[in-house]
Design brief:
This protein is of the alpha/beta class. The protein has four helices and 28 strands.
């Protein structure tokens, strides 16, 4: 049975699952769907259309499904979709999509969003991602699974962040951030090798980590042209799945290129 605080405002058309808790002064608007076991903290606002999965926790003063912060937005019907088991801390903000960007912002499952982090319109965030305090995505950003967005880090619009990427605090990312790699700094950000310790903690084999290290060195230290480096990576290390993903990520990079 759900528990709704008497001061909360819940639109009668909102769909509320079982065992949902809605705290004081929360506002749940029309077009919102909340999955079973979700906790909505005090002063949280959710605009629709927004769909939340199961067992999410939204703490105080956070805001979800609000209009995109895009001057081209004219009130079109767009949406936000969030998976299961995410934790959103205080003052997190997540905007819906825009028609020009596909109409939807998506967030996967098992993510941690620390206080004041922001996900803009048309972003697509994977699963098991960590956003430290004030981590910020501009519009149309893609973040892969198991990535880490450091405190006060900002990612430029239309950029991608690869799986298991680590972005250090205060980093300004204006190109795609390589998977498995530590990217740190601002204007320009730079890479600082494979995130050995993080990958070890996540259970990657020594063979995979060493292969990624070799691939990274070929890309950034060999003085080869990028195409030449990728050809050697594929020929010499392409039998390792993580290296194949590393190579394909670069080949499919946005027009902005990759941080090296």
């Amino acid at each position: 049975m759900s528990k709704i605080h008497p001061t909360a405002i819940v639109d009668p058309t909102a769909i509320i699952g079982s065992d949902v808790e809605i705290g004081p002064y929360a506002v749940i608007e029309a077009g919102v769907e909340i999955g079973d076991g979700t906790e909505i903290g005090p002063h949280v606002r959710i605009m629709g259309p927004t769909k939340l999965g199961k067992r999410n926790r939204l703490t105080g003063n956070a805001s979800f499904g609000t209009d995109p912060q895009d001057l081209k937005f004219g009130g079109e019907k767009t949406r936000l979709e969030i998976g299961d088991d995410n934790l959103f801390r205080e003052f997190v903000t997540v905007n819906r999509g825009t028609i020009g960007g596909g109409g939807v912002t998506t967030i996967g499952s098992n993510n941690l969003f620390m206080a004041y982090s922001h996900v803009a319109h048309d972003c697509h965030v994977g699963s098991s991602v960590i956003f430290a305090n004030c981590g910020t995505l501009a519009g149309h950003v893609e973040v892969g699974d198991f990535a880490t967005i450091g405190a006060f880090t900002a990612v430029h619009q239309f950029c991608r962040v690869g799986n298991h990427a680590f972005l250090g605090g205060d980093t300004i990312v204006t190109q795609d951030a390589l998977p498995f790699v530590k990217t740190v700094g601002s204007r320009p950000a730079k890479t600082y090798g494979i995130n050995h310790i993080g990958l070890q903690r996540k259970g990657f084999s020594a063979e995979s980590i060493e292969a990624l290290r070799k691939a990274y060195k070929l890309l950034t230290r060999s003085k080869l042209l990028q195409q030449e480096a990728l050809e050697r990576i594929d020929a010499e290390l392409g039998d390792i799945p993580e290296v194949r993903y590393f190579s394909e990520f670069i080949k499919s990079a946005s027009k902005r290129g990759v941080v090296r």
